Amino acid sequence: MTASPVLAVAALAALLLAGCTAQPAASPTHTPAPTSPTTPTATPQADPVQAFADQRLASMTLKQKVASLFMLHYPGTAAAPIRRFVEKYQPGGLILMGDNIPPLMSALKKQVAAISPDPELPLLTGIDQEGGIVRRILLDSGPAGAELRNKPASVARSAFATRAAYLQRAGIAINFGIVADETADPASFIFPRVLGTTPQAAADRVAAAVKGERGEVLSTLKHFPGHGISAADSHASIPSTTMTLSRWTATHAVPFQAGVDAGAEVVMFGHLQFSRVDNKPATLSKKWHDILRDKLGFQGITITDDMLMLQRSGNTSYRSATRNAITAIAAGNTMLLYVLPAQPKSVGFEPAKVVDAVVAAVRDGRISEATIDADARKLIVARRSLVLG
Which 3 state secondary structure label does DSSP give 126? Predict the structure, then answer.
């Protein structure tokens, strides 16, 4: 039996983000009566999601674990071919693009329910539903970045609550919808989509958006460490800056910190280069993953922006799909995202070959198996939390 998605999302948030310990009880004002020696002692119960994750991980081959770290795309609204694609490559997630969305929400719900081969471990389905100029479900006509940044943060909360309700009704798990970038440059590629033109204005609306989505879908902050550092478009280049880490901490970090503090469960890394921090794009940078974890305190799921963007960037260093995937996992990404056509080979990406290359990297020590296990287990927890049997 499938549980309420609201309960499932709340449970996952607790599993991924919990860090508080129970406070000790106040000292009693009287001496309690001695406990009878015959009183039975309660046996602690194992968390069922964690127990399931341990069991499932132990049953998986290394290749299955690696495959589960990929979120792929297959075009079309027909569930059967999408499911065959999933059964063939065994990804842990599927991103739904505009070409996957049927006219009726009822049809979308049936499609999403039909594409997961294993009802005990459903796919993590994701979608870009920012609203405005970036939305896959066209019924969502609510305000987005350009409008929300000129209104109180409470309007952003309401807009994203409504947005998340659309996704929850369709059974979609993750919204790649909260733009935590900030810029005041109208010429910037990302400007029409930002929620604020100053760090604090963006932070207020990012936090509100996360709170609005709470309990409905998993919230994603994008594009870490901040697309607003450059006017360039990361779909066709690698935007770059010479900004220092201290300057970033005082500016572009602020909305991401607010989103993390508000409880966002996912952070999407952008193909953005901060040359004074690391010459690699943030997607491939262990330094930036360490900063997100150690400085911003994020412990949830990290996912790349579309990895094919690196191959199209014009930088010859990133033409190899296999090398990019190995580097991205070694850097600290929990999941790698690929927006693929029906014939992935046509864009220089063959899922089975890339998975095999990552497996080989584990075998020869370039990636530790402990890293793969930790990532695969985190995703099993996320997927299992969508199901309460």
Answer: strand
